[in-house]
Amino acid sequence: MAIPWLLALKVIPWGDVIEHAPKVLNAARKLMERQKAPPVAVPSSPVPLDLGQAPPSLGELKNRLIEARQLIDQQAQTQVQLTQTLAELAEQNARLVAAVELLRVRTRVLMFVIAALAVGVVVLFAR
Question: Which residues fall within 8 angstroms of residue 24, CB to CB, at 6 or more apart?
């Protein structure tokens, strides 16, 4: 089970991920800021009525309007939730990239220390 995960981790272009993480985070923050801005009123275009049918009554139009407003409110809530989720994922990605970079540096230092110790052991036993 661990082999596919290791293979997947090797396939991921970590250099690209690290390079683009700040851009993704900034874009998510801009999206959140734009989402917080007051919505701009969009003029509605009139819906053409089918002249072959009788025009809907005022009660029907009112019910349709209420339903449409509810759908718009639901979609707005969904968009806000998706935007928040995207921002959270971008922040998590940035933290992950920082952790990977720290691990990369630590690995390089560890490899250097191991090489120095190996040289030291060879020198000690060569005497």
Answer: 90, 93, 94
